[in-house]
Amino acid sequence: MSSGPSTVTLVGTGLIGASVGLALRRRHPDLWVIGVDASDAHAAEALRRGAITEVATIHEGIPPADLVVLATPLDTLAELMRAVGQLAKPGAVVTDVGSVKGTVLRAARQLPESVRFVGGHPMAGATVGGPSLSDPLLFENAVWVLCPTPQSPLEATPEMRWLTDAAGARVVVMDAERHDAAVAAVSHVPQLLAVALVEAAAATGDDALTLAAGGFRDMTRIAGSPFSTWRPILEDNREAVLIALNQLTTQIDVIRSSVASSPAGLADVFERAGATRASLPASSKGSINPLADVVVWADDAPGFLHSLTGVVADAGLNLRDAELLRIREGEVGTFRFGFSSADDADEAVRALTQAGYRATRR
Description:
alpha/beta; 14 helices; about 45% helix; about 20% strand; globular
């Protein structure tokens, strides 16, 4: 790992920005992290939580920074690039966390040649934000996409590997155009589909919503994301989203035709989809270096999660990731635990089973 920068400036101290600060300071407690935010309340909360060490204006915060992380909405980045280009010192590295990369890299052309830019997209977040919900482990085992440019290749920007290593993330290097097509298919269109499913169910009637169970709730969880977050994403990635929507529409037309003529004709579609779904990497946070997963069931009682992780810890195993799959109050909770290796996962199953829990590999 590179020795890293001595000063990092976060422009934007919401959920993502503050979580970056917490992750960096967790690994590097002496790091000086400057926070810049149009919201005084966000900056103050980030300072209180220890995500930043100083609050500054953009004119104060950019010049001393070795690394600048732009963690603001997509529609602010073009203007920010102009300001950063005027204020950043020669040799500084600038990156962003936006979920669309093509427009960001075009905006970065405003930066002077003395400033290096690498596009970034950590694939982590939540449907609600703000620094009060920031988490130093938000990016642990998450994929962090990097989109370098010919002018700023990764070998010339070791600060980026330092950043992702400190955050605990797993790097995927992609071309910006390919990134935008991929996230349109696996992130942006699913958001629109979740909204459409909720709207369709609501149109069916209130009694339909009273029947909404695990499958519907799982598929529509992200429907609660605010439109203010998604408007600039859909505007900036409109072309790729439309292509992905057309692909989805084609699949829906195939399914509609089969339902109308003979539902039995869907057998092959279900089989292909099931096989593809089963081939997805096990970790919910990424798409490379998948973790070995264990699914465990436990009674919903006070301290039950603590007891599960205690069994894992007592067995000397390192739990790399955990996810709540479902829970029914007063009944049973189901968790996914991720381990670095198949051997660790198998040992976890043995330890949890011996402790009286139902646990299986997935």
